[in-house]
C-alpha cells in the first residue's frame, strides 16, 4: 500500500512536467547558449563560443540608451500604477456590493481583452488626428496638435492602462485581510481620511503593493505590443529591439543576448525592490 | 453596516476618473468602428455598418479568427488534461520535490513572453516545426497551463478529502473515487481554468508573433501586423466584435467565480 501511494503524485504530474521541460526549460537553455555564439551575416549563427554579443551590448551607446529608456519607462509605469491603483483598490473595497461588482468588471475586465485592442484604443485617442487633439482644437484650447503618438509619455499612459488592473488586483487581495475596525478606531480617535489612508490602510497593504509592483514592473519592462504600436520605430525599447534583431536583422545571437540581459536586469531590480520594501516596512512582513 | 453610504466625495470622484480612464480607449474603438468614412474618425456626421460588413470581405482576418479559436480550444483543452492530474497531485499529496514541481509548472508565468517567443522560435526551427500549427499549439499549451493549474489546485485544496476516504473505505476503487467524487468536486475550478486558459491563448500576441508564420498567423498577430502598416476603421470594427465577445465571457466568469478570484488564481 505504501509503494503506489508514494509514486502516484509523480505519475500524475509527469505529463505536465515533461511538457514544461520540453517547451519551456529546454528552449530557454538553448537561448542562453545561442547568445554565446557569434553572428555570421551569411548563415546567421556561427561556430565557437564567444562573449562578443554581450560585449557589444556593454560597449554600445545605442543599447545603453535603449536599456535606460526601457527601465526608466518600467519604473515610471510602476510608480504611476501604485499611485492610482492603490486608491482605486481601496475605493472598490468601500463600494456597495452591487456597485463593486460592476466596477470590478470595468477595472479588471480589460485584462481579458487583447492588448492589441487596448493599445489600438490609445492609438485612436493619442494620434495627431486623434480624438484628444481634435477635441482640444475644436474647443480652441490649442491651435497645433500636441504630439502624443510616438512619444515616451504616450507609451507610459497606454502601459499604465494595460497594467494597472494587476496592481488593483494585488492590493485588493491584500485589503481583504485588513480589519476594518482599525480604520474605524482611527476615525473615532479623530483622524481625518488622509491620515487614515496614509497611516492605517496603506501600511497594512504594503505586501499587496509590493507583489503588484513586481508584476507591473516585470510586465512593463518586457512589454512588446504597446511600445511597438504607440512608441513606433524611433522610440525603441529592449523587447522591440529583440524583435528587430530576430525578425529584421536576423541576428539571433545578439537578440538572444539582449533577452538574457533583459531577464537578468528585471530579476535584479525586482530583488532590489523586494529587499528595499521589506526592510523599509519591516513590521508588516512579520 | 453600510460603509458605502459614507464614501467621501473625493474618493468617488477619483473612482469615476479611474473608470473613465479604463473605459475611454475601448469606447473610442467602438465609436470609431461606426464611421462611414474610409479613415479613422468619429461617426457623428454619419454612422454606418460599413466596417462591420467589411469584416466579411477580409477573409484573411476571418481565417485568422477561426485559427485563433481552434488554437485556443486545443491549447486550453490539452493544458487542462495535463493540469488536472498535476493539480490534484500537488493539492492532495505531500511528496519530495512538490515545491519544485509547482515551480516548474508555474514557470511560464515568470518568463517574459518575448523571451519565450524567441526561445521557442529557435527551438522549433531546430525541430523543423517553426511556423506550424503543431508548434503553435504546443507553445500555447505551456503558456496557458499555469492558469488552469492555479485554479485546479485552489479548487482541490478547498474541499474535504474525508469524502473520498469514506468512499474508499466503502470499497470504491481508485478510479471510481476519482470519477464519481474527486472530479465532480474540482470541476468548477477546472471549467474556470479552461475558460481563462482559452482567453489567454486567444489574446496572446508577443510569443505568437515569433512562433507563427505568415500561413499560421493568429488573429492578434494578424491585427498587429496590420496596425504596424496602417490603422483603419476595419481594425476598430474587428476589435469591437472582440470586446463584445470578451464581455460575454467576462460576465460568465464573474457570475460563476468572481473576476478577482479567477484572475488572481483562487476559487
Q: What does it look like?
A:
- The complex is a heterodimer of chains A (286) and B (267).
- Chain A has 286 residues and is mostly helical.
- Chain A has a single domain (61-285), classed as MetI-like (MetI-like fold).
- Helices cover 75% and strands 1% of the residues of chain A.
- Chain A is built from 13 helices and two strands, in the order H-E-E-H-H-H-H-H-H-H-H-H-H-H-H.
- A two-stranded antiparallel ribbon of chain A has the order 1-2.
- In chain A, helix 2 (52-59) crosses helix 3 (61-94), helix 3 packs antiparallel against helix 10 and helix 10 (206-221) packs antiparallel against helix 13 (252-280).
- The radius of gyration of chain A is 24 Å and the shape is globular.
- Chain A starts with a helix and ends in a 6-residue tail after the last helix.
- Chain B is mainly alpha-helical and 267 residues long.
- Chain B has one domain (59-263): MetI-like (MetI-like fold).
- Helix content of chain B is 74%, strand content 0%.
- Chain B has helices at residues 9-32, 50-57, 59-92, 98-106, 113-127, 133-158, 162-169, 174-203, 208-211, 219-229, 233-256, 259-263.
- Chain B starts with 8 loop residues before the first helix and ends with a helix.
- At the A-B interface, helix 1, helix 3, helix 4, helix 5 and helix 7 of A face helix 1, helix 3, helix 4, helix 5 and helix 6 of B.
**Roughly what percent helix of chain A?**
over 70%
Indicate the CATH class of chain A.
Answer: Mainly Alpha
Which of globular, elongated, flat, extended, rod-shaped describes the shape of chain B? globular
CA-based gyration radius of chain B: 22 Å
Oligomer: heterodimer
Strand order of the largest sheet of chain A: 1-2
Beta-strand fraction estimate of chain A: under 5%
Name the biggest interface: A-B, 91 and 89 residues
Helix-and-strand structural type of chain A: mainly alpha
CATH superfamily of chain A: MetI-like
Using DSSP, what is the number of strands of chain B?
Answer: 0
CATH architecture label name of chain B: Orthogonal Bundle
Query: What would CATH call the homologous superfamily of chain B?
Result: MetI-like
Number of helices of chain B: 12
Residue stretches of chain A low in confidence (pLDDT < 50, at least 5 long) are none
Amino acid at each position: 500500500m505504501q509503494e503506489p501511494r508514494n509514486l502516484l503524485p509523480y505519475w500524475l504530474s509527469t505529463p505536465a512536467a515533461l511538457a514544461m521541460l520540453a517547451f519551456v526549460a529546454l528552449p530557454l537553455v538553448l537561448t542562453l547558449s545561442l547568445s554565446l555564439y557569434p553572428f555570421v551575416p551569411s548563415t546567421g549563427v556561427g561556430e565557437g563560443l564567444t562573449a562578443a554579443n554581450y560585449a557589444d551590448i556593454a560597449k554600445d551607446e545605442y543599447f545603453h540608451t535603449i536599456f535606460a529608456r526601457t527601465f526608466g519607462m518600467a519604473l515610471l509605469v510602476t510608480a504611476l500604477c501604485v499611485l492610482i491603483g492603490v486608491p482605486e483598490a481601496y475605493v472598490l473595497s468601500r463600494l456597495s456590493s452591487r456597485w463593486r461588482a460592476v466596477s470590478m468588471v470595468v477595472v479588471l475586465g480589460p485584462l481579458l481583452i487583447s492588448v492589441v485592442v487596448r493599445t489600438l484604443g490609445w492609438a485612436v485617442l493619442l494620434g495627431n488626428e486623434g480624438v484628444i487633439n481634435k477635441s482640444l482644437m475644436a474647443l480652441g484650447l490649442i491651435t497645433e496638435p500636441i504630439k502624443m503618438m510616438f512619444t515616451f509619455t504616450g507609451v507610459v499612459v497606454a502601459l499604465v492602462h494595460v497594467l494597472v488592473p494587476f496592481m488593483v488586483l494585488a492590493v485588493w487581495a491584500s485589503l481583504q485581510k485588513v480589519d476594518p475596525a482599525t480604520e474605524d478606531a482611527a476615525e473615532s480617535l479623530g483622524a481625518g481620511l488622509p491620515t487614515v489612508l496614509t497611516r492605517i490602510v496603506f501600511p497594512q497593504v504594503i505586501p499587496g503593493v509590493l507583489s503588484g509592483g513586481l508584476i507591473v514592473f516585470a510586465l512593463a519592462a518586457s512589454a512588446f505590443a504597446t511600445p511597438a504600436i504607440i512608441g513606433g520605430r524611433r522610440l525603441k525599447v529592449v523587447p522591440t529591439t529583440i524583435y528587430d534583431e530576430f525578425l529584421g536583422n536576423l541576428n539571433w545571437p545578439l537578440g538572444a543576448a539582449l533577452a538574457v540581459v533583459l531577464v537578468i536586469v528585471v530579476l535584479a531590480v525586482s530583488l532590489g525592490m523586494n529587499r528595499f520594501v521589506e526592510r523599509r516596512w519591516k513590521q508588516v512582513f512579520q | 453596516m453600510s460603509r458605502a453610504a459614507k464614501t467621501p466625495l473625493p474618493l468617488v470622484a477619483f473612482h469615476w476618473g479611474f473608470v473613465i480612464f479604463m473605459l475611454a480607449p475601448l469606447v473610442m474603438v467602438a465609436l470609431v468602428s461606426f464611421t462611414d468614412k474610409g479613415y479613422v474618425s468619429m461617426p457623428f456626421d454619419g454612422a454606418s455598418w460599413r466596417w462591420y460588413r467589411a469584416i466579411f470581405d477580409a477573409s484573411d482576418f476571418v481565417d485568422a479568427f477561426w485559427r485563433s479559436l481552434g488554437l485556443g480550444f486545443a491549447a486550453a483543452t490539452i493544458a487542462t488534461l495535463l493540469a488536472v492530474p498535476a493539480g490534484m497531485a500537488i493539492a492532495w499529496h505531500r511528496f519530495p520535490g512538490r515545491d519544485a514541481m509547482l515551480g516548474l509548472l508555474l514557470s511560464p508565468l515568470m518568463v517574459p513572453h518575448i523571451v519565450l517567443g524567441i526561445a521557442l522560435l529557435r527551438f522549433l526551427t531546430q525541430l523543423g516545426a517553426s511556423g506550424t500549427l503543431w508548434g503553435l499549439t504546443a507553445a500555447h499549451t505551456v503558456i496557458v497551463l499555469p492558469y488552469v493549474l492555479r485554479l485546479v489546485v485552489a479548487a482541490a485544496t478547498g474541499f474535504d478529502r474525508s469524502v473520498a476516504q469514506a468512499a474508499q473505505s466503502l470499497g470504491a476503487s481508485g478510479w471510481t473515487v476519482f470519477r464519481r467524487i474527486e472530479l465532480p468536486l474540482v470541476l468548477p475550478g477546472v471549467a474556470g481554468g479552461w475558460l481563462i486558459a482559452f482567453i489567454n491563448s486567444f489574446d496572446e500576441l508577443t510569443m505568437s508573433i515569433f512562433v507563427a508564420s505568415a500561413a499560421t498567423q493568429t488573429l492578434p498577430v494578424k491585427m498587429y501586423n496590420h496596425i504596424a502598416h496602417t490603422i483603419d476603421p476595419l481594425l476598430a470594427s474587428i476589435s469591437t466584435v472582440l470586446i463584445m465577445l470578451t464581455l460575454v465571457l467576462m460576465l460568465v466568469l464573474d457570475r460563476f467565480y468572481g473576476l478577482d478570484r479567477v484572475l488572481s488564481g483562487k476559487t
